[in-house]
Amino acid sequence: MTRPRKRHVQLELPKLDKNGQHRGGKRKGAGRPKQGFRASEKHKTRKTFKATEPVHVIMRVRKEVGSMRRHALFLAIREATLVVATEDRFPNFRIVHLSIQKTHLHLIVEAANRRQLWRGMQAFGISAARQINAVTGRLHGPVFADRYHARVLGSPRQVRNCIAYVLNNWRHHGADREKLKNAWRVDPYSSSLSFDGWKQREAAGVYYQAPVGYPPPFVYIPKTWLLSEGWRRYGLVDQNEIPGLGDE
Questions:
Q1: How many C-alpha atoms does 78 have within 13 Å on its Cβ side?
Q2: CATH number of 55-234
Q3: Lowest mean pLDDT among 74-78, 111-115, 165-169, 182-186
Q4: Domain limits of the chain?
Q5: In terms of C-beta density within 10 A (0-12 exposed, 13-18 middle, 19 or more buried), how is residue 7 classed?
Q6: Is the pTM of this model over 0.85?
Q7: pLDDT value at 39 more than 50
Q8: How far apart are CA 206 and CA 222, in angstroms?
Q9: Residue 112 DSSP label
């Protein structure tokens, strides 16, 4: 009985560059470089969600832009909210809550689906980058460090905690202890003035009044049940509540 012949496989020699070093393969320092001190948001398919589920979005700003908690940059972000709101292309994308921190933005948005979220956030990001570059004197260049991070909010408790986290985020970072031109009970670099779920506001039966000349960001009245009514099952938000979860 004859034995089958062995199949000989030609081994490929490792590639060398002009300095005699190996090229290709897994090695330290290979691959896409990190942008800043954080790795980029993973480029994977985003989670699908229902039109009834709000989404919490975080956008990180590149460090060369500097602190975002400046009046001129606040106006730049406000202009971006107006651009998206007045565009007929985004009828199914709405920014409901907004908070501007030194190194990042928080948004709670409503969108019909994953595609509408992507299109709306893309338009907002492009408009915001143009406005910020114009204000800071930068001719061009990226403003946001990586892809935005999105988390779907599927329950009343999640939505309530997220609203408190976003609108009181300045207390989380200690920005409420910094000197401001006016004595603010809520964050002036956010959409807090238009929020009707503050515990103190409900008890007093009055609206917070903005100083003369203060232009609030443009945000929508929520349409989803979770953002308009459902979250209230777990209590109104205290203006002095300090969010403790997360590092943003």
A1: 17
A2: 3.30.70.1290
A3: 182-186
A4: 55-234
A5: exposed
A6: no
A7: no
A8: 20
A9: S
Residue 141 near residue 129 (C-beta atoms within 8 A): no
Give residue for tokens 């470089």. Answer: 33
Rounded CA-CA distance 150/58 in Å is 7
Residue 52 and residue 159: Cα distance in Å, rounded?
A: 12
Q: What phi and psi values does residue 215 have, to the nearest 5 degrees?
A: -95, 110
In this structure, are residues 76 and 184 in contact, taking their beta carbons and an 8 Å threshold? no
Contact status, residue 79 vs residue 131, Cβ threshold 8 Å: yes
Instruction: Report d(CA 114, CA 56) in Å as an integer.
Output: 13
Which pLDDT value is given to residue 153?
97
CA 201/CA 128 separation, integer angstroms: 31
| Token pair 């009343």 in the structure block, residue | 156
How many CB atoms are located within 10 Å of the residue 36 CB?
A: 14
